[in-house]
Structures are given as C-alpha cells and as structure tokens.
Amino acid sequence: MAFYEHVFVARPDISPQQVEALVEDITKIIEGENGKVGKTEYWGLRNLAYPINKVRKGHYSLMNIDAPAAAVQELERRLRINDDVMRHMTIRVEELSDEPSPVIARKDRDDRRKRD
To answer: DSSP for 48-111?
Structure first.
C-alpha cells in the first residue's frame, strides 16, 4: 500500500460539524477499500488564494491515508460528485508524519505569541 496526504476545501456556508461528517465519510470510503486513515487535521475556515465561483473562504482539512491506489481513485471520484467539496488534492508521499502540519504548528506558535 502507498502513503498519501489528502487535503480538501469545503464550502464556507457549511458548519465545522458537517466538515467532520465529511471526514468520517472519507474515512469510511478508505476503510471500505482496505485502507487506513491516520492523522486528520481540521485547519478551520481560511481565505482562499483566489476566489472560486465568487467564494473567498473555505474549510480546510488534511488527512494522512495508507491505502491502495484504487481506494484513492474511488475517493476522488466521490469527492468530484460531492457539492460541499470545492477543491481536493491527493499527493503520494514516501512516509506519513505524525507531527502537526506546518499550518497547525504556525497557528499554535501565533497563539502562544498572543498570550505572552
């Protein structure tokens, strides 16, 4: 099996609980295809680099996936159909990291600076 990092951007008008439901659906898809989902991170409602259909924000989420290629293809097929997902990207990596992503690490560092 191969290792993947999967990031998706959901519409800003859905709630964070609905984003969590999307993550659970993705987890079920991967596990149904004999894969495993490792770390998941919710990055929050963030500004997009450019507007998509006049929308300027989106809910970002990251998932570490250990699954065969067929599982990732099925996941991407279902995400293309889903109206709540604006963009998604899956990248194959050599190994999965258990450390927080740079986005979360920077957010924690900024929070500590504000408290000091």
So the answer is: EEEEETTEEEEEEEEEEEEE-HHHHHHHHHHHHH-TTEEEEEEEEESS---SPPHHHHHHHHHH
